[in-house]
Prior knowledge:
Elements lengths: L2 H26 L11 H4 L16
Amino acid sequence: xxxxxxxxxxxxxxxxxxxxxxxxxxxxxxxxxxxxxxxxxxxxxxxxxxxxxxxxxxx
Length: 59
C-alpha cells in the first residue's frame, strides 16, 4: 500500500465519520424554543374595523 492509497483511505474514513456524525446530530438536536412575544396579528385575531350600531363611531 503506497502513501497515496493510505492517505485516500484515511480521508475517506474521516469523511464517512463526519457525514454520519452530522446525520446523527441533525436527528437528535432539539432547538431551543424561544418565548414568543404576543404578536399584533394574534392579539387582534377576529377583530375587524366594521362599525356596529351603537358603538359610538360615525363611519
